[in-house]
Amino acid sequence: MSSSYLLIIVLMAASWAIQWRLRSKFKQYAQVGLSSGLSGAEIATKMLADHGIYDVRIISTAGQLTDHYNPTDKTVNLSEGVYAERSAAAAAIAAHECGHAVQHATAYSMLQFRSALVPTLSAVSRFMPWILMAGILMLRTSIIPLGVGIGLFALTTLFSFITLPVEFDASRRALAWMDRRGVVTVQEHAMAKDALWWAAMTYVVAALASLATLLYYVGIFLRRR
After folding, report:
1. pLDDT for 150-207, tens place per residue?
2. Are 57 and 75 contacting, i.e. CB atoms less than 8 angstroms apart?
3. 3-class secondary structure for 111-131?
4. Which of 1, 83, 209, 221 is 20 to 30 A from 62 (CA-CA)?
5. 3-state class of 18 per DSSP?
6. Residue 222 half-sphere exposure toward CB, CA atoms < 13 A
7. What secondary structure does DSSP assign to 79-94, as a single string?
8. What is the reported pTM?
9. How far apart, in whole angstroms, are the C-alpha atoms of residue 106 and residue 29?
10. Taking the chain, what is the end-to-end CA distance rounded to the nearest angstrom?
11. What is the DSSP letter of 30?
């Protein structure tokens, strides 16, 4: 059990360190003006148009690093800084989110699978922690509640791992388009690639942390059988 605790703590520390590094990278690259002079919103507009996508809206949303693509209402949501900013960081984020829009438009299988799980996971996340807690408390009388909780938690872990190819593919599409279109210089392309790599690492660590937590609960379950 101590090794499980240690692994979870290490992954939590790694998550914090990567989040800090990610913010540091984006802050650094946000200071580098884009040679093309394009804003994040203009980058997004060009990438969508180049892929023949005209039914996706690009909107500004509050916050920092709150950028995301919403397949439900077909919107590329760019944080206020990214939307108006003309930097290597803004270009990377805007193109990445448009990468998700391209995935949606081309029926990318992993995105479809991930989207299909969202309604179920939204419902599960409401009561899963309570079931796990009840399962731990009721271990002496029944292992069934904990078994159910583990099954539900396994779905969230699966979702975390399905997210990985979706995120890596969106970054790949973004970088390939920026290189092909020539909207960034070689140096700016390297910055965008570095920033997106650190962003992807946050998802990797989150998936590993979810797996470690799942194994922790499985360990408890097996010891009580």
Report:
1. 999 999 999 999 999 999 999 999 999 999 999 999 999 999 999 999 999 999 999 9
2. yes
3. HHHHHHHHHHHHHHHHHHHHH
4. 209
5. helix
6. 7
7. EHHHHH--BHHHHHHH
8. 0.89
9. 30
10. 16
11. T
List b or e across 79-106, with b for residues whose CB sees 16 or more CB atoms inside 10 angstroms: bebbbebbbbbbbbbbbbbbbbbbbbbe
Q: Which helix (H) or strand (E) holds 142?
A: none
Of 41-45, 102-106, 114-118, the range with the lowest mean pLDDT is 114-118
Instruction: State both tokens at 129.
Output: 């922690």
Which tokens go with 55?
């039914």
Q: Report in angstroms the alpha-carbon separations of 104 from 74, 96, 100, 130, 216.
A: 9, 13, 6, 34, 35
For 181, residues 6+ apart whose C-beta sits below 8 A from its C-beta are 46, 47, 50
Nearest partner of 48 among 115, 122, 100, judged by Cα: 100
Pairing mode, strands 68-70 and 75-79: antiparallel
Report which secondary-structure segment, H or E, holds 67: none
Active site residues: 97
Tokens 């998700």 belong to residue: 100
Whole-number Å distance between alpha carbons of 81 and 118: 28
